[in-house]
C-alpha cells in the first residue's frame, strides 16, 4: 500500500465507514475536552513521525471520542481500517484460557503437561504461562520471528532452542512470546483440535460484534512502515504470517473493534467472560521486583501505575505497527491508540493520556443509587450491621445477588467482598480474605451465634463472656 505525504486531520465521530458511533447522550464531550484529546493525538503523531495514527476513548461502555491524524492511501484513516495489534493479541488468548477455566476444563494451577504433551516446560503451571513467569525464553528460535514466515517453525519443537527454560518457573516475571504459542496450542487441544483463531472468532469475536478482527489483514488496512531515524523517509515492513507464534502477536484489528474490546475488558460480558474473572486477570500474578512498583503483569494483561491511577491493558508492536490499550476500571474509561510505524510514537503514553484527559476534564458521574432487586432476603438483612473481631468493630453490608461486604468501621484494617456459594457459605473475592470461607454459625435453636471467617470469630459484641471467643473471655468482663 502507498501512503500520501499529506498530513490530514479527521475525527470520525458519526460519519464515515467504520466510524465508532457514540449514543446521543454521550455524542459530545465538552469542546475543550475534545480539543485536548485531538491535540494529544496530533502531538503524538507529529513528534513520533507516524504515517498515520488513530485513537479513541471509551467510557461507560461506549466510544465517546475518536480521532485520526495522517493518511492511509491518501485518505484519513477511519474506524474500519485495520492495523496490526501485536501483543494485544495476548489479551484475547488469555480470555480464551480463562473461559476454559470457568468451564471446569482446567485449573490455573494445573501443570501444562497435564493437558499438553511434549512441551519444554511440562511442570510450569498455566497461570505461570499467562503471567510470563514460566521461565521460558523470551523469543522463538531461529531468525527474527516477527519478520519471517511461520513456515520456518512448522512444529512446536521448532520454537525452542537447546535452553528453552532460562529461569526457574514461578520465581520472577520474564516475558515469553513462545509461552503464548503454547497457550494457543492448549486452547486448540481442549477445544477438540480446533485452530485457536477459530475458537476466538466463535466464542469471543462474534458475540462482541468484532467482525474486523482477523488473523490476516483484510482491506482496508494500513501498510506497515519503518521511518528513517535521521530523515523523513519510509521503508515498507513485511507482514508475515507467524504460524505457531500467532497467539503471541498475529491479530489485525480496527479502532472500532478495539473500542468494543476495551468496553468488554472494563465491564465483562456474560456471553464471553464475567467481570469477576476479568478482575482476576488484573491482579499482579508475580511479586513486582521493585518495592514501590509502577509496572506489573497479571494473567494476560499489563498493569501500570500512572499519576495515582492503576491502568490495565496491553501494548503491542510488530514490524510496522504499534498499539496500546489501557483501561482504568475505577473511572470506567479506556484509551486506544493504533499507528503504522515500527518505532517513534510512544503509543503507551498517548493512550494513557487520552484516558487521563477525559478523567480530569470531565470527572465521572456515578451511577444513580438504587435499592437491591427484590425480593429482600430477611435472614441476610438480619446479618448486617456491626460485628466485632475481639474489640475491633466491623460492619457487614448486604450487596447485590446475595453478596456480602465486611469492612472495619475505622476504615483501617482488613476488608473484603464475598460471593455466595450453593452450600450456604461465602467466598472472599479480594483483600486479605480472598479465597477464604465465611460461615454463619448457629446455636442449637437455629439462632445466629457468630461468624467464622477462616477461623477468625466475629461476634455481635466486643468480648462478651458468653461469646464463643477462642481462648475464652474473663468472666468478670470489662473493667474500669
From TrEMBL:
Residues 45-356 form the Beta-lactamase-related domain. SUPFAM superfamilies: beta-lactamase/transpeptidase-like. Pfam families: Beta-lactamase, DUF7586. Residues 377-460 form the DUF7586 domain. Gene3D superfamilies: DD-peptidase/beta-lactamase superfamily (3.40.710.10). Residues 1-22 are annotated as: Disordered. It comes from the Bacteria. This is Beta-lactamase family protein. It comes from Streptomyces auratus AGR0001.
